[in-house]
Design a protein that fits this description.
The chain is an all-alpha fold and 296 residues long. The protein has 12 helices and no strands. Helix 3 packs across helix 10 and helix 3 packs parallel to helix 12. The longest helix has 36 residues.
Length: 296
């Protein structure tokens, strides 16, 4: 008789994720998009600021596959360069928000009394703030000082990542806190406590690993939200400087030429749409794969 093959929970989750066809296909599409923006400039070596006045506002051609802007700059080269920044902002802002949310939620979930009450009051305070006006205000006040200290590109990158991440941790904190409240009463945690495990060991070895499933799903949502937030800031002219072509900045530059050069706005908008849509589909697949109650 053939012995059953044992698999780890993460291997089982990966098997369940692959059966979610839309999420699995989105993972490959997002991987191809990321690979294109990472390796594309090494293959397509047209400069992002190379000007060709003879090809101003031209649509896609063999020489310029995605067309050109009002100065004759190649849109494909600028989108490949800007895609790195847009995706990096999304990933870094997500990590910032997840880190803050997990720490706050874990401390609140394992604590009792005034510590939990204070952290949840702080979370509710941040949730009540109008995010877009506050985002614009922080960018306006701290953009120039950070540009002086770190340079225009790095300074704006750090500011946008910290501001977006610092305003996106609250749902994660509430989620982790709820998971901790549920898991700390489970039998395996009580067994570890009875064996003399410290609170830190209970959190690190037993509770937190079992609470990561919903956090991973929330992380995918945060990446998509951060990409949209960065694109919004760049479109409003408060993101990266004009000479740094993020997808949102390219959209902002194209708004006065929508009637005669629709390709200029269509391609960066399509890139943002594909990135956000695939990340959301991946989040749906992870939600189903990490929920043992769902049958795939």
């Amino acid at each position: 008789m053939r012995a059953p093959v044992s698999t780890s929970p993460w291997a089982e989750a990966w098997r369940r994720f692959k059966r979610h066809r839309l999420a699995y296909g989105s993972l490959w599409l997002l991987a191809l998009l990321s690979l294109a923006v990472l390796l594309g400039p090494l293959v397509y070596k047209v400069g992002i600021n190379d000007i060709d006045f003879m090809a101003r506002l031209k649509g896609p051609t063999a020489e310029h596959p995605l067309g050109t802007d009002d100065l004759g700059r190649d849109l494909l080269a600028r989108m490949l360069y800007g895609g790195r920044i847009s995706l990096a902002v999304g990933l870094a802002a997500m990590l910032t928000g997840i880190l803050i949310g997990v720490v706050v939620g874990a401390v609140a979930g394992i604590s009792r009394g005034w510590v939990d009450a204070f952290l949840m009051w702080l979370t509710d305070l941040f949730l009540s703030l109008p995010q877009l006006p506050l985002l614009l205000l922080l960018i306006f006040f701290f953009r120039d000082p950070l540009k002086v200290v770190f340079g225009p590109e790095v300074g704006i990158f750090l500011l946008i990542v910290l501001v977006i991440g610092g305003l996106s941790w609250m749902p994660v904190a509430r989620l982790v806190r709820a998971q901790f409240f549920s898991l700390r009463e489970k039998e395996f945690v009580e067994a570890a406590r009875a064996l003399g495990a410290s609170t830190q060991r209970q959190v690190v070895r037993h509770i937190l690993p079992n609470a990561l499933g919903p956090v991973i799903v929330a992380a995918t949502i945060n990446i998509a939200a951060a990409i949209i937030a960065e694109s919004t800031l760049s479109f409003l002219g408060l993101g990266f400087p004009p000479d740094i072509p993020t997808w949102g900045r390219i959209l902002n530059d194209s708004r006065d030429y929508l009637d005669i050069a629709v390709h200029w706005a269509m391609f960066p908008g399509l890139a943002i749409f594909i990135a956000v849509l695939t990340i959301n589909f991946i989040g749906d697949g992870l939600r189903d794969a990490l929920d043992p109650r769902r049958v795939l």
